[in-house]
Design brief:
The chain is mainly beta. It has one domain: Roll (Thiol Ester Dehydrase, Chain A). Helices cover about 10% and strands about 40% of the residues. The chain has one helix and six strands. It has a six-stranded antiparallel beta sheet with strand order 1-2-4-5-6-3, covered by helices on one side. A hairpin with a 2-residue loop joins strand 4 and strand 5. The two termini are about 15 Å apart. The model has no long low-confidence stretch (mean pLDDT about 95).
Length: about 130
Amino acid sequence: MKVEDDAFCFVCGDKNNIGLHANFTVNDNNSASARLVIPSDYQGWAGIVHGGIISTLLDEVSIYACRKISTNGVTAEINVKFKKPVPTEKEIFLTAKVVEIKRRLILVQAELVCDGQVHADAETKVFILDMK
């Protein structure tokens, strides 16, 4: 499978006019993070970020945590736990860290934090298409 980055990713793509334009930091210890504010355009209930957007953000930060291992990874599985509603129009902090590597499958733990509390977390299995 060949994947291509055309800058239209909904979460991080510069060319996507309706995207979130998240800017991720990738660290040498196989982790990634980002800070952003989710506009009310992406709400489910009034003032609350839609669960699909939360899942998407946890998915994306998990992929970025694998970037020092490979730039071509895809999500094989994700298990999201919603702990508290995530408010719109408020800064959130996303983090993810690789916790295990099994050949081409990478296990990543991710969190979404707001006001110092975990509002959602995820365990993601990332399949690496090509190793660095």
